[in-house]
Amino acid sequence: MKILGVLLLSTLFFVKAQDPFVDSLLRITRHVKQDSVAKIYSKLAFYYTGVNADSVRKYAYKAAQLASDTSVAKGDANIQIGNSYHMQNKTDSALIFYNKALAHFRRIGNERGIGKAYQSFALVKKSLGDIQGSLDDSKKAYDIYDKINFMVGKIGALSNISSAYLRLNQLEEAALYARKSFFLSKSLNDNVRYYQCMNDYAGMLKNIKQWDSAVFYFQQAIPFLERHGMHNLLVVSYNNMAQIYYDYYKKNNISLSYLYKATEQAKLCKATDNLRYLYRDLAYFYIKKPNSDSAVMYMDKMTDLIDSLNIQTGLESTKELQTKYETEKKDLQIKQQESDIQFKTSENKRKSVVIWLSLAALAGTGFFAAMAFINFRKTQKANQVIEGQKKNLETKNTEITQQKHLVEEKQKEIIDSITYAKRIQQAVLTGEEVWNKVTKEHFILFKPKDIVSGDFYWAYNTPNNRSVFLLADCTGHGVPGAFMSMLGNSFLNEIVVENKIFKANEILNRLREKIIHALEQKGEGGQRDGMDMCLCVWNKIDNTLEFAGANNPIWLVRNSEIVEFKANKMPIGNYTEKLVPFTSEVIQLQKGDTIYLITDGYADQFGGPKGKKFKYSPLQELLLNNNHLSMQEQKVVFDKSFDDWKAHYEQIDDVSLIGVRI
């Protein structure tokens, strides 16, 4: 019976699962076990996945009806029905059947099926924009696959986890899980899946701007993909290589050659959507070159591709009429030849035959004349459509040029506005005259990621011989972070300067109250905006330092040793239902001590020969090795070390470091 099922399935695929063949072939399954037939229907549903949602649902429903309550096939069928609804963007219906599948797999204790259900949930949530939910479900699926050591499932789950982290802009985690997926694929002894995973990993490295590594793996994968004619993957690979050589290596000719290769592969696999975007990229590439007609040519190709279906339909109709005309004309000639033979053999019937032939010729001529006229009119209309498209293209090109100028103007206005905002932020940040009263031996390294910064520093010298100084890191960077920094600056002036509160932990408590109130944060599930901070109150009378911190510590260097004073593990903002008060610590200072205030931007920066984070231990070592220098010399060293490490990598966050020598 098992052999019969295999033969039947092979036959069904041979005839491409067309309904008449399916119905007739499946009649012989009445003597086969129902679960076996259900599996065949399930395979048929799988055959149509990604092609025809209605066919998927049709065969999956039959599989679900035939499968027993204890079979895996029933759960698989419910997942396939859910997939068919997902293909049609009917996510509510998809979730109903995924839940049915999950309940069934749990009831029969099938771990692999439970993993499939969670992977299905992850894909639906991803399409709905719930990336965190998608990530959680993919992790659940991975844990299950890991428990039963299902390698193919683990690889797929890791790939989905990596994709989710990329969407969440958590680049280090995205790269980590993509790397795990790729290296795990080596153990499968499946070259096709291995090189597919390698290609995906290279794409992830490109997304996180590890350009050199991405190129290395693309160059490993591409020859295999070319040998096996994997055109769809080659379109993506060549396009990624084109972007890398254009954006990073600035080698436009090599980038252009990869765009051409991608275009050829897209033609081979009839990837119309990809081909349209490739034509667009080629057009934009040539727009930047003076006196080039190629830009217009590729815009023409893109537009022609969009409208080709309508034009092709018209041309095919015209060609069909022309063929019909030629065929009937030849038939008429044959009839005329037969009439000549009959004329010679039967003189008595000559007149009647000639009359009938004349009438037939007249009718035929009239018919073909009508066909020729219709053909002419259709061709004329097709030419008018093409001419209209050319005019539309010219109009579109003009609009694109105008929009390009408009975008450039708006971009300039935005940049000018943000640059002006930078001047305002610089004016609000505590000036050198205040810091010099704290101590003349100090430095401030302040490197915003964008024009304005989410990091800010603040200082105040009290009438009772105390100095309050701090460094803060607000949620986000750029304009949103700058708004938060202005808010924090304003509240600190109110708390410390106006209300005369000089106790470190009390300042943080008051600041948190004001941030929560200003942002209307409510409960654990509300907004998470706020700031991390390290705050010091230096009592110059007894030479003590009171420190309070929200996530960010301070470092004290004394006698060539570094001591870290840890902060409370909570931000200044709402993070839980019950707020815990901040605590402070009093440090007895000695002459020559150096206090360092930091944010996470320096340590988290990607760079170096392997594109990794700088991290905190090397930063502490850098501080110790250069602590003997003057404060301004230290600033130069730290600034140069950061730039050398970052090199060609993009700065990922605001970077701030303050040094104060006692």
Entry keywords:
alpha+beta; Serine Threonine Protein Phosphatase 5, Tetratricopeptide repeat; Phosphatase 2c, domain 1; 3 domains; five-stranded antiparallel beta sheet; 22 helices
Give the class from helix and strand content and strand pairing.
Answer: alpha+beta
Mean pLDDT: 81
Number of domains: 3
- What percent of residues are in strands? 5-15%
Calculate Rg over CA atoms: 36 Å
| CATH homologous superfamily title of the largest domain | Tetratricopeptide repeat domain
At the first level of CATH, what is the class of the largest domain?
A: Mainly Alpha
Distance between the termini: 88 Å
- For the report, how would you describe the main beta sheet? 5 strands, antiparallel
Low-confidence stretches: 1-21, 309-325
Shape: globular
Number of discrete helical segments? 22
Mind telling me which CATH architecture of the largest domain this is?
Answer: Alpha Horseshoe
As laid out across the biggest beta sheet, the strand order is 1-12-9-6-7
- The number of distinct β-strands equals 12
CATH topology of the largest domain: Serine Threonine Protein Phosphatase 5, Tetratricopeptide repeat
Report helical residue fraction.
55-70%
